[in-house]
Every structure is written in structure tokens, then in C-alpha cells.
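subagent[fold] <- orchestrator: predict structure for attached chain, return C-alpha cells only, no commentary.
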Amino acid sequence: MENALMISVVLLWVVVIGLIMVVIALARQIGILHERIAPAGALSTGGGPKVGDAAPSLAVKDLAGEVHHLGPAEVSLADAKSQLIFFLAPSCPVCKTLLPVIRSSARAERGWLDVMLASDGELEKQQAFIEREKLSDFPYVLSTELGMTYQVDKLPYAVLIDQQGILRAKGLVNSREHLESLFEAKKTGIASIQEYFQQAG
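subagent[fold] -> orchestrator:
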């Protein structure tokens, strides 16, 4: 009887030790997974104006005929807002999936942010795209010059200019998290989440 009790106690300790080892291994794997899925920032590209510099001063006309001034503010700073330029194209499927995010961000951040859509290409296709996706609430600019100024070679791409005309963030945006990282870059003064993690070491 005593032998059976002793054996059961030993087996119980073996099981407990085994469980402790499994918990430690799982905790380690969770830590590794947490590092791998760290918040993603917009994927900044090296070309075009540098973040932190004054944005190139441009005047662009939207399809409704209204002229928009980009870059250093030409109105009093009390009235100025930051400007988000979202580059897209009718043939870009990721751009379409981000349109609800653009709409919700424009509503949520309207107190300090104006949103503009920018593209180039055939006017008829762009107008059909605007009608199909119900984008008439946004200024919609067709400007090759604007895309070339920021050296946009992949879509969707976004540029954030603050109310003083300083380029605060830019990059490829494939998700809500990428877009929101541009806003965080403006708030923190750090150009990108990637730069933040590099500084954090």
C-alpha cells in the first residue's frame, strides 16, 4: 500500500514538473510571437521629400475645379488643418479595400485633418470609379506632377502634411494600422513605427 502511494506521488511530481516545463515553453513562444506581430507602420520608401522637411509647395485642382494648396500654409495657422493625400487608382484592389478606412478616418479626424484623394490616368475611368465607390465627398485630384513630386511608385500610398506645411509622414499603406501609424508619427514626431522600434533598440 505504501509503495503504491509513493509511486503515485512520484508520478504526480513528474506530471507537475512536465506541466511547468510546458508553461515555460509556451510563455517563451508567446514572447516570440509578440515580437513578430509588433504594430506595423506605414512602409516608408526612400524617394521624394524627406519627412521633417517643408512639403513642396503645390497648387492642384480637383475634378470639381477647386484649387488646393499643398505645402507651407498660405492661410492663418488658426484656420489651417493637416492634409492627408491618399494616392489610389481604380485598378488597385487594395486601394478599394481601404476606402472605408479612409472614410471613417476622415470623419473621426475632421477636426484637424483634411483628406484628399489623388490619382492619374484617364478621366472617364476616374469619374466612373468616383461614382461607383461614392467618393464625391472627397477632393479628387488627377495630377501626375503630384505623384512624381512624392515619387509614388506603388499604391496605395499616403502623405501627411501638418498645418504648418511640414511633411510629417509618408509611405505605403495596406491596412488601417498603416494609415493610423501616419497619425501616430505626427503626434510623436517620429517618422515611422519602424524608426521608433529602431530607436527603442
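orchestrator: received. Logging for downstream: The two ends are 60 Å apart (CA to CA). The mean pLDDT is 86.
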